[in-house]
Design brief:
The structure holds 2 protein chains of 2 kinds.
Chain A: H1 3-15, H2 26-39, H3 52-74, H4 77-92, H5 94-146
Chain B: H1 4-26, H2 29-45, H3 47-50, H4 56-74, H5 79-85, H6 107-117, H7 120-130, H8 136-143, H9 147-170
The chains are: A mainly alpha, B mainly alpha.
Chain lengths: 148, 171
């Protein structure tokens, strides 16, 4: 038999099959899983399922960290912090004080000059990534729906 | 928060279609039920957005198909590997793969059982083509194998089903 004829024959026979029915146990299983899902505390759910107030607070915290970090740096707040740490370190021991001094020097030499650029880069790429994810989700959703 | 009774109506409406797709792709009732449960939990996560969408059936079919393929590949590391490790005729004697309790049945069930007894690399593309309306090219892309391999596997699967049907006719 030719391949096209075989395809047509088997296709016709397969499509004439009755659809297998879901077992009666499926919904009870789904319901149990749903109830377990809904009973989880908020911190064990995905971020999208968090209460609205917590989602807003987490967004504000993240935005505050992103914006506040370079602002704090430019306001000189960071310069005061190592001094405090240095004092604590000195009281703990000379080794800790030396470590704090080394970290402080490293921060001055490498981190502070780059901090603004790193934060700006993170903001731009983060925004672009979020826009891309939203666009992809919409495209996938529309694509999936249009297949039916 | 999702209304559970509204979600139950949703599940009841779509459960047979989701289960049928999963059952035919996986060839196992228990695996199909596991996948169907996962599909509906995914639907729950975005129920507010899709619950009333008239085109949600397509979304459910896509998610079901993807989860089934993930399920199959999870146990075989890579589709290509397990597919190409099979021998030309499907690895084992086709008749040996048919469960004994399914052997004496009517014609419809006979074909359904024969379909389930096919090796995965023959059954899955046949189901995607004949039940899910995917093209050969789409199937090759989804499974990550060549177009030629998809066509060869599907031809061998159809031949096995035809032989089974003719064997049934002769009984």
């Amino acid at each position: 038999m030719h391949a096209d004829d075989l395809e047509e024959l088997i296709g016709r026979r397969l499509r004439s099959l009755p659809e297998p029915l879901a077992p009666p146990t499926l919904w009870p299983r789904v319901r149990a899983a749903v109830e377990e899902h809904l009973a989880r505390p908020w911190y064990r759910r995905t971020w999208r399922d968090w209460p609205l107030a917590l989602r807003a607070a987490s967004l504000a915290l993240a935005a505050g960290a992103l914006v506040g970090w370079p602002l704090a740096g430019s306001a000189g707040l960071w310069s005061a912090a190592p001094g405090l740490v240095r004092n604590i370190g000195a009281s703990v021991g000379g080794g800790a004080g030396a470590l704090v001094t080394a970290v402080d020097a490293l921060r001055h030499a490498l981190i502070e000059p780059l901090a603004v650029y790193v934060v700006a880069f993170a903001l731009v790429t983060g925004t672009a990534a979020a826009a891309l994810v939203i666009a992809l989700k919409q495209a996938l959703t529309l694509g999936g729906f249009s297949r039916s | 928060m999702t209304d559970v009774s509204r979600f139950e109506t949703f599940v009841r409406k779509h459960e047979h279609r989701v289960y049928a797709t999963a059952f035919r792709l996986l060839g196992s009732r228990s695996d199909a039920e596991d996948v169907a449960q996962t599909v509906f939990l995914r639907a729950l996560e975005r129920f507010d957005a899709i619950g009333d969408d008239p085109a949600v059936g397509g979304w459910l079919r896509t998610v079901t198909t993807n989860l089934c393929l993930n399920h199959l590949t999870r146990f075989r590391r890579r589709w290509r590997l397990f597919s190409e490790m099979e021998t030309d005729d499907g690895g084992t004697d086709f008749a040996d793969r048919i469960p004994a309790e399914d052997a004496a049945t009517d014609r419809h069930t006979d074909l359904e059982v024969a379909l389930r007894a096919l090796p995965d690399h023959q059954r899955v593309p046949l189901v995607l083509f004949h039940f899910e309306g995917r093209s050969y090219q789409e199937i090759a892309s989804v499974l990550g194998v060549s177009l030629g391999k998809v066509k060869t596997d599907m031809h061998r699967g159809r031949k096995a089903l035809k032989d089974r049907l003719e064997g049934g006719d002769a009984r």
